């Protein structure tokens, strides 16, 4: 009755290729589109026609490439306000929401603090209110929004619209897409937040034009999203890119995941705090205290960050040696303390990468919470394609 997924906008491979390329890199000439997609110019024109009729694409005024260069060309461009997309990021404390246009341009933002009750029912209720508020911001949003993307940390089955596990209390096997489709009337895509952010960066950020790309988040946890051969890797069992749970010391301390010596055991902000508390004998220290101590040169605090940095560097080197991405974007709230462990990340990375794989640059990219919500909105944009 309330299908999770509205039909894709395009189904034919040629239309899909043309639309996908223009979403990322509009405007482009038909010649460029033909070259990049491997289609003939005639096939590009044929593929674009229904999208122009539907108002998703338009032709720009003709451009003459050079005097006497022959027939003028009409570049094709995405009509960005043809459709809008709501994106919501669910964090442990709050909801962050955005409305984006067809090329993931931010149009409006909003948020809600979560209350005491963080059950799926309570969070869905707040989420429905936030969607209404965002759509009320402009009459065209309500008129032209059909899709909602939701990003949440944890184990998410995107195809089933199911949150199998999240850190939020009571969140086990929650059919979130169906519940939100019923509440909002929108077509809903649910995805793990790091994967959604990776897709957004791949299509509209640092990863544009790359076939192999990775995003690494550092902070309260360590995670990664992977793009291989142009596709976001979801993994056969819904798990892939669990960088935080690669074991880098088989004799190391136990991890909350049940493993031992995982990257997170050394690198999560909680691990840095525990290590500094242990070394100083001061159980009253907060994470901010440890940051302050490290910045004024306290040896124990600095060593806790150094250990974390080395673990992250080894973890990223493992990922890069396995996949050989063109670029790795490093983001997350942990960037706030990059001054304290950045050098250790880079040294460990360089020392552990296999040969030429180390050419892969690490790009630091601070991404505020709206960017995570934008990642959720991109789920909706991607749902236009099959
Ligand atoms: Zn673990």
Q: Write the H/E string, N to C.
A: HHHEEEEEHHEEEEHEHEEEHHHHEHEH
Shape: globular
| First-to-last CA distance | 21 Å
Helix content: 40-55%
What does this structure look like?
The longest helix is centred in the C-terminal third of the chain and has 25 residues, at 299-323. The chain contains 13 helices and 15 strands. Helices cover 41% and strands 19% of the residues. By secondary structure, it is an alpha/beta fold. The two termini are 21 Å apart. α1 packs across α3 (41-53) and α9 runs antiparallel to α11. The protein has helices at 13-25, 30-37, 41-53, 120-135, 139-144, 176-184, 193-204, 263-267, 269-280, 287-295, 299-323, 338-352, 369-382; strands at 57-59, 76-78, 84-90, 94-100, 106-113, 145-152, 155-157, 162-165, 172-174, 187-192, 213-217, 223-228, 231-232, 327-331, 362-364. The structure holds zinc ion. Zinc ion (ZN) binds next to loops.
Question: What is shown here, in short?
Answer:
The chain has 13 helices and 15 strands. The protein has 386 residues and is of the alpha/beta class.
Short key terms for the protein model shown above:
about 375 residues; alpha/beta; 5-stranded mixed beta sheet; about 20% strand; globular; binds zinc ion
């Amino acid at each position: 009755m309330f299908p999770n997924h509205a039909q894709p906008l395009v189904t034919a491979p040629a239309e899909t290729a043309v639309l996908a390329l223009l979403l990322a890199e509009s405007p482009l000439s038909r010649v460029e589109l033909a070259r990049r997609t491997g289609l003939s110019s005639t096939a590009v024109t044929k593929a674009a026609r229904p999208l122009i009729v539907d108002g998703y694409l338009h032709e720009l005024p003709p451009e003459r490439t050079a005097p006497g260069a022959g027939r003028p060309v009409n570049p094709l461009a995405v009509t960005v306000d043809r459709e809008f997309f709501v994106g919501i990021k669910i964090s442990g404390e709050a909801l962050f929401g955005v409305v984006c246009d067809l090329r993931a341009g931010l149009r409006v933002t909003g948020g809600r603090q979560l209350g005491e009750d963080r059950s799926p029912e309570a969070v869905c209720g707040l989420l429905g209110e936030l969607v209404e508020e965002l759509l009320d911001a402009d009459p065209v949003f309500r008129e032209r929004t059909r899709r909602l993307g939701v990003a949440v940390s944890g184990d998410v089955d995107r195809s089933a619209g199911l949150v199998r596990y999240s850190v939020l209390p009571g969140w086990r096997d929650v059919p979130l897409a169906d519940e939100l489709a019923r509440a909002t009337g929108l077509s809903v895509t649910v995805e793990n937040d790091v994967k959604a952010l990776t897709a957004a960066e791949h299509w509209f950020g640092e990863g544009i034009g790359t076939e192999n790309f990775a995003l690494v988040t550092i902070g309260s946890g360590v995670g990664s999203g992977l793009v291989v051969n142009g596709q976001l890797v979801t993994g056969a069992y819904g798990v892939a890119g669990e960088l935080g749970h690669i074991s880098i010391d088989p004799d190391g301390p136990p991890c909350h995941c049940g493993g031992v010596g995982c990257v997170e055991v050394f690198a999560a902000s909680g691990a840095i705090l525990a290590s500094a508390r242990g070394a100083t004998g001061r159980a009253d220290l907060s994470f901010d205290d440890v940051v302050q101590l490290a910045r004024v040169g306290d040896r124990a605090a600095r060593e806790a960050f150094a250990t974390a940095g080395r673990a992250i560097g080894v973890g990223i080197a493992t990922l890069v040696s396995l996949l050989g991405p063109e670029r790795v974007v490093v983001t997350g709230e942990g960037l706030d303390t990059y001054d304290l462990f950045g050098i250790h990340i880079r040294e460990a990375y360089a020392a552990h990468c296999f040969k030429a794989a180390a050419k892969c640059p690490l790009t630091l990219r601070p991404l505020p919470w709206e960017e995570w919500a934008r990642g959720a909105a991109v789920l909706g944009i991607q749902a236009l394609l099959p």
